[in-house]
Design brief:
By secondary structure, this protein is an alpha+beta fold. The chain has 10 helices and 8 strands. The strands form 2 sheets. The chain has a 5-stranded antiparallel β-sheet with strand order 4-3-2-1-5. A 3-stranded antiparallel β-sheet has the order 6-8-7, with helices on one face.
Length: 288
């Protein structure tokens, strides 16, 4: 016991306020409390917060460990003057940090706004600035938002940019994605026949989703609606709105439908327009 007391008294009053062993034990207690509270808060957030829980857990983690580190430093005598000066000049430091890190603080504040108002969450499919960036939200950190594109690359966008951007959240539309199937046919083709073929092929596709409400079904609204949208120089444009569960399924479905409709059109005599060019060759009569 005398040995432990001797070791504990080493540096007491000069380096440590309460002795070496007492200081080490106190530091371990502070860090353990921060760790336990972090895990408890994380379980609570994951159980009760369904949107952007990861972002909230990061803020809690930083706050708890900052307090724990401050408590540990307060046990060291050399840091007494430093910590007292920090508290005394906290206002000035806050102003300096604010000017020096305006962009970072702006991203942090915008991250909190995104988490609070929830224009999107992790897992949502979003289009930023009219399709400039498009993909799934995979992370919302203290500084930026990470989007995974269809090419499986990651686009890192500052939170301040995301909060000010024109944002289309595709996932908010009841998880149904409207896909436009546009096909041009020639003026000589049978329009009604072409529309019937398109409707039949759309209904046969396994990923086609009937998005009609109960009221629409009761009123006899068609599950596939095809409209003539424009008269072009050499073609007529037909457009169908085809619903799918996800954007990826919708893209694959449109590819399949173009293939099957092309084969049906060939069998039924529906022509696709293509450019024609007439070449006139003039021959000059040779003089006798």
């Amino acid at each position: 016991m005398e040995i432990l007391k001797t070791i504990n008294d080493w540096g007491k009053g000069t380096w440590f306020k309460y002795g070496l062993i007492d200081t080490i034990i106190s530091m371990l207690i502070f860090l353990s409390i921060a760790y336990i509270l972090k895990r408890l808060f994380r379980r609570y957030v994951e159980a009760h917060v369904k949107v952007n829980a990861q972002f909230i857990n990061r803020i809690i983690k930083i706050t708890l460990y900052t307090i724990a580190v401050y408590a540990c430093l307060s046990l060291l005598t050399p840091f007494d003057s430093v910590l007292s000066k920090v508290w005394g000049s906290a206002g000035i430091i806050a102003v300096v940090i604010g000017f020096a890190a305006q962009e970072s603080m702006g991203n942090f504040v915008n991250g909190i706004l995104i988490t609070t108002f929830k224009p999107f969450k992790i897992g949502d499919l979003v289009k930023v600035n009219n399709g400039e960036y498009e993909g799934y939200v995979v992370d919302i950190s203290l500084r930026d938002t990470v989007i995974r594109t269809y090419e499986n690359t990651k686009v890192i966008i500052p939170n301040s940019t995301m909060n000010k951007a024109v944002l289309e959240n595709v996932s908010l539309n009841n998880n149904n994605k409207a896909n436009f199937l546009t096909i041009d046919i020639s003026y000589d083709s049978d329009i009604d026949k072409a529309m019937n073929i398109m409707s039949e092929e759309i209904r046969k596709h396994p990923d086609f989703l009937d998005a009609r409400s109960k009221q629409d079904k009761a009123q006899g609204v068609n599950d596939v609606i095809i409209r003539l949208t424009s008269f072009n120089d050499s073609s007529i444009t037909l457009r169908a709105t085809v619903y799918s569960k996800t954007n990826a399924e919708g893209f694959a479905m449109l590819c399949d439908l173009r293939y099957s409709i092309k084969k049906r059109f060939d069998q039924e005599g529906i022509e696709f327009p293509y450019p024609h060019r007439s070449v006139i060759i003039k021959q000059e009569e040779s003089s006798l």
